[in-house]
Amino acid sequence: MEFTAQQIAQFINGQVDGDANATVHTVAKIEEGMPGALSFLANPKYTPYIYQTKSSVVIVNNDFVAENPIKATLIRVPDAYTAFARLLEIYNKSDNENQGVSSLAFIAQNASLDSEVYVGEFAYVGERVIIGKGAKIYPQVYIGNDCVVNEGAVLYPGVKLYNNTIIGKRCILHAGTVVGSDGFGFAPQPDGTYRKVPQTGNVIIEDDVEIGANTTIDRATLGSTVIRRGVKLDNLIQVAHNVEIGEHTVIAAQTGISGSTRLGSRCMIGGQVGLAGHLNIADETKLGAQSGVGSNIKEKGQLLIGTPAIPIGDFKRVHVHFKNLDEMAKRLRLLEERINQFESGRENRS
């Protein structure tokens, strides 16, 4: 499909700077541009590429000032990154307009499906399930009994929803996500064995949540595990039973959150972070990659890193000493040797 610069500008409320009739039919990184491609410039370190790119059209911020001639047509917008993301969203939506229920899907007789849904081959929809308008259930999705999948939600291939799971409006669950599996609850017994604690709760995922591939969210022991509105979870994240993640929190891959921990709103959690159980994490907390958190974070808006996680300013000061530990150890050994020599000399004189 081909678009002119003017048409693209209308999609994103931009202003054309150059040939409004320049056409594009594909997208490319600015450093890998080619004729007929659309690119964008948001990160200043990529600015040199705009003077040599072969892309036909480039989206830039309104405040961009060219220091050299540019061959490409520019589209100026307040935020180039957001505008480009919007275009990709429009493209992706047009490329995923599947509708209808496959004859190869299993739908329980008492399940309720809106007329405008898509259910792909070999999907399973259990008893008393409710699927809202515009929802898309891709092949090999499993939806257990009494689940609710609300309007506009998308479940990509291989997603598994255990019984009683609730998925909010416009949620996106990527391939292999498992929601509602048993929490890790085992009671130690006198003979050294472990007795399984039944997990009787469910998982509630509110509106506009996106969950990456192969992420797992456990059902609550009692009550609900809750993912609040606007949360974004990366691939390969483990969310344990009775966890609550606050609105618009984002979490990177391979993070693990132990049972009954509550994260506040608008937190930013780096990759491979580990959080112990039964903690409270304040709103707008930022945790650097591979941090380990074993106690409550009470102050809003802190940036912490390390294990145990400490404020980043303290971490940097400590890290300076850490890098010098070997030299400090050598100096300490030398000092000990001199003290020993002094003590030996004093004993010989007495």
Written overview of the protein:
The chain is of the alpha/beta class and 350 residues long. A 12-stranded mixed beta sheet has the order 8-11-14-17-20-25-28-31-34-37-39-40. It has a 10-stranded parallel beta sheet with strand order 9-12-15-18-21-26-29-32-35-38, with no helix packed on it. Strands 10-13-16-19-24-27-30-33-36 form a 9-stranded parallel beta sheet, with no helix packed on it. The chain is flat and about 100 Å long.
How would you summarize this macromolecular structure in one to three sentences?
By secondary structure, the protein is an alpha/beta fold. The termini are far apart.
Unreliable residue stretches:
none
Q: Provide a count of the helices.
A: 5
* Biggest beta-sheet profile: 12 strands, mixed
The average pLDDT score comes to: 95
SSE-based structural type = alpha/beta
Q: Bin the strand percentage.
A: 25-35%
Q: What is the helix content?
A: 10-25%
Rg over alpha carbons: 28 Å
What is the CA–CA distance across the termini?
A: 98 Å
What does the overall shape look like? Answer: flat
What is the total tally of β strands? 40
| Strand order of the biggest β-sheet | 8-11-14-17-20-25-28-31-34-37-39-40
SSE inventory with pairings:
Elements: E1 3-4, H1 5-12, E2 15-17, E3 23-24, E4 26-27, E5 37-40, H2 47-50, E6 57-61, E7 73-77, H3 80-94, E8 100-101, E9 106-107, E10 112-113, E11 118-119, E12 124-125, E13 130-131, E14 136-137, E15 142-143, E16 148-149, E17 154-155, E18 160-161, E19 166-167, E20 172-173, E21 178-181, E22 186-188, E23 194-196, E24 202-205, E25 210-211, E26 216-218, E27 224-227, E28 232-233, E29 238-239, E30 244-245, E31 250-251, E32 256-257, E33 262-263, E34 268-269, E35 274-275, E36 280-281, E37 286-287, E38 292-293, E39 303-305, E40 310-311, H4 312-323, H5 325-349
Parallel strand pairs: 4-5, 5-6, 6-7, 8-11, 9-12, 10-13, 11-14, 12-15, 13-16, 14-17, 15-18, 16-19, 17-20, 18-21, 19-24, 20-25, 21-26, 24-27, 25-28, 26-29, 27-30, 28-31, 29-32, 30-33, 31-34, 32-35, 33-36, 34-37, 35-38, 37-39
Antiparallel strand pairs: 1-3, 2-7, 22-23, 39-40
